TrEMBL record:
Keyword Lipid metabolism annotated: no
PANTHER family: PROLYL ENDOPEPTIDASE (PTHR42881)
Name listed for the protein in its UniProt record: Prolyl oligopeptidase family serine peptidase
Gene3D superfamilies in alphabetical order: alpha/beta hydrolase (3.40.50.1820), Prolyl oligopeptidase, N-terminal domain (2.130.10.120)
Domain named Peptidase S9 prolyl oligopeptidase catalytic: residues: 449-654
Keyword annotations: Hydrolase, Protease, Serine protease
Residue ranges annotated for the Peptidase S9A N-terminal domain, each copy included: 10-341
Superkingdom, taxonomy of origin: Bacteria
Keyword Hydrolase attributed: yes
InterPro entries hit by this protein: AB_hydrolase_fold, Pept_S9A_N, Peptidase_S9_cat, Peptidase_S9A, Prolyl_oligopep/macrocyclase
Length: 675
């Protein structure tokens, strides 16, 4: 039982499923076997279609160092004369396998002189990785790599010193489950044991991101709202910006920190802050380079002596170019209306990649997969370094706005098969959290196959995300979190009312998995299929774990505030399930090594729904072995995942013919127990 101050206990009948003992694993194996039985041959029937239309996350940009390019090619890293050219294999990460699972390249970072390649290798799907160092001339794996474990690749891995003698990196300082992180300085040939004595907030579990440039090193603190919290001038550390409540996300440019900030500018403005300033916490001493505009300014990238500014206009990407004084000198001519790939969270955009003298970017549209483009300062066109792998060239994209319960207009994009004007089976995919923009991009997780099969796919931009600036984020977090779910229901209802959807499904991953689970439990009558992927399902239970408490504190509420806990129970799906309700078909997916949304969330919600289900529809669960949150999943495994949940969605939204073997059984059969 969990309690809030002065309140009755919160029921938790399936807390035993939070364990990892044999009883729990036996239950989990039984559920997996049940899912396999109920799905039958549905995944096989769509696998080839999904395979032809699924791409990985946006491709990693090649890195330039020592006059050569380094890029991932399959399981290898190649050094070549051109960004994606043929060249010499520097390393094959297959040699680092320590189990049956295929190792995963989490990141790569060559030293500035190109002599040493640092890579992060994950062997269990969890994203946790260790550093390997390779001599690029010989391919020999060096024996002087640090031994610390990196929680993930979100902080860039190895951030090299300009002289190539060592690098900064962020790693966990205790158990990976404690989530405490420190920044380490590793010198080649030395042993690294202790983190740097950086002045950071006491007890922080949030991300710390090193940035190096010239004689300066900056430590940014915070994933959703990073600020340059500490600075090193080549001699010692000192606090930098510690008393400003805002996002300040940028890069070292000479002796200034040039950053996008939402301080006094909810859509963002560009400022420069002297790194040797005695008063960095006084915004009046900052220099404004580009004022706030109607566009949402998201990131800045220094290229040569220019600054490339990534921004959103009605969710679509634009890139403006300004000089060091903020004067506009041009823009990047993007090939269409679409999305630029950047880390979803502002802190992830602080890692420099590519080439210091060229702008490299990944670009996609809702109907074309990711390409890699290059813009040379002064050029009037972009060069395609890697074309799109696949797409839906004949599909149509319609940009629409729904009206939420409080009158706010909510943008969404509808991807339809060619010539389709009638109501179709429709799947909504959305996120809505943590200041992370959900982009008008090529559909992730193989979802383009849903359109190719004759369905309609909707990408919804809900409050809580970062698509429309700081106010959009704040309009769907903490006390206003329910707005995010109201926005979803507004989009869903409009699709039905306007005759676009014949049957409606909802899917989402991570915070989007929470979104789908909330939609299932708050509005079960809306949906014909619900697919929470790697979801957070038990808000109260998550507060017992350090990582869960950290993310909840960013976006949902504070554990030490009883009013917040009571409010969070209003959107904690596990606690919203009601006995005797007819729930729609549900497919819940998770990974057994997920450090962000552990599999017990999926287990508990599955068990609670199966016990409460009053209708005939199945409640199925799949827990994948040696799979985490999705950031370190090999493609073959990701393909199997997508084929399963998409076939479930297609079947229950009536894109696949009905089969009696898929319908729940009777008389106490395993399929009947899935109800």
């Amino acid at each position: 039982m969990e309690t809030t101050a002065g309140d009755p206990p919160v029921p938790d009948p399936y807390r035993w499923l939070e364990g990892e003992d044999e009883e729990v694993l036996r239950w989990q194996r039984w559920q997996n076997a049940l899912t396999t039985e109920v799905l039958g041959d549905l995944p096989a029937r769509v696998r080839d279609l999904v395979d032809g239309l699924m791409v990985d996350r946006a491709p990693s940009l090649p890195r330039f160092a020592g006059g050569r390019w380094f890029h991932a090619k399959g399981s290898t890293v190649v050094r070549s004369d051109e960004p994606f050219g043929d060249g010499a294999t520097v390393v094959d990460i297959g040699q680092f396998a320590d189990r049956e699972t295929e190792p995963f390249l989490s990141w790569l970072s060559p030293s500035p002189d190109g002599a040493v390649l640092a890579i992060g290798v994950c062997t269990d799907g969890s994203e946790q990785n260790t550093i390997r160092l390779i001599d690029t001339a010989t391919g020999v794996v060096r024996d002087d790599a640090p031994s610390q474990v990196l929680f993930d690749g979100w902080t860039g891995g190895a951030i090299w010193l300009p002289d190539s003698t060592g690098f900064w990196f962020t790693a966990v300082t205790g158990s990976v489950f404690e989530v405490t992180k420190g920044v380490f300085l590793h010198r080649l040939g030395a042993v690294t044991t202790d983190p740097e004595p950086i002045p950071l907030p006491a007890g922080t579990m949030d991300y710390v991101i090193p940035q190096a440039g010239g004689r300066w090193t900056v430590i940014a603190h915070g994933l959703a709202t990073p600020v340059p919290y500490a600075v090193h001038d080549g001699r010692s550390w000192r606090p930098f910006i510690t008393d400003v409540s805002a996002t300040i996300a940028g890069h070292i440019v000479g002796d200034r920190y040039v950053a996008v900030t939402d301080l006094d500018a909810p859509r963002g403005r560009l400022v420069a802050i002297d790194l040797d300033s005695d008063t960095p916490n006084d915004p009046s001493t900052w220099t404004e380079l580009v004022p706030e505009s109607d566009a949402v300014l998201r990131t800045v990238t220094p290229v040569a002596d220019l600054l490339y500014l990534s921004q959103f206009v009605d969710t679509y990407a634009q890139i403006s170019i300004v000089d060091s004084a903020g004067r506009r000198v041009g823009e990047v001519p993007l090939p269409a209306r679409g999305a630029i790939s950047e880390g979803p969270f502002p802190g992830m955009s602080l890692v420099r990649r590519g080439h210091d003298e060229q702008m490299l970017l990944s670009f996609s549209t809702p109907t074309r997969s990711w390409s890699v483009l290059r813009h040379i300062p002064g050029a009037d066109s972009v060069e395609v370094l890697r074309p799109p792998e696949t797409g839906l060239p004949d599909a149509t994209v319609t940009d629409l706005w729904a009206t939420s319960a409080d009158g706010t207009r909510i943008p969404y994009h509808v991807i339809s098969p060619p010539g389709a004007d009638e109501a179709l089976p429709t799947l909504i995919y959305a996120y809505g959290g943590f200041n992370a923009p959900f982009l008008p991009q090529y559909p992730p997780k193989g979802m383009a196959a849903f359109v190719a099969a004759g369905g309609r796919l909707v990408l919804a931009h809900l409050r809580g995300g970062g698509e429309l600036g700081r106010d959009w984020w704040h309009g769907g977090r903490m006390q206003t979190k329910q707005n995010c779910y109201a926005d979803l229901y507004a989009v869903a209802q409009e699709l039905l009312d306007q005759g676009r959807a014949s049957r409606l499904g909802i899917a989402g991953a991570s915070n989007g998995g929470l979104l789908a689970s909330v939609a299932l439990t708050q509005r079960p009558e809306l949906w014909s299929a619900v697919i929470p992927l790697v979801p957070l399902c038990d808000i109260v239970g998550a507060l017992r774990e350090p990582y869960g408490r950290m993310v909840i504190d960013i976006d949902y509420g504070h554990a030490d505030d009883p009013a917040d806990v009571r409010r969070m129970l209003g959107f904690s799906p596990y606690h919203l399930v009601r006995d005797g309700v007819t729930y729609p078909p549900v497919f819940i997916e998770a990974g057994d090594t997920d450090p962000r949304c552990p599999p017990w969330h999926a287990r508990k919600l599955t068990a609670r729904l199966q016990a409460a289900q009053a209708g005939p529809s199945p409640v199925l669960m799949r827990i994948w072995e040696n799979v985490g949150h999705g950031w370190a999943t090999p493609r073959d495994t990701a393909l199997s995942e997508a084929a399963e949940w998409l076939s479930f969605a297609m079947h229950h939204l009536q894109l696949l013919p009905s089969r009696s073997a898929v319908a729940p059984g009777s008389g106490g059969s395993p399929a009947d127990l899935a109800r």
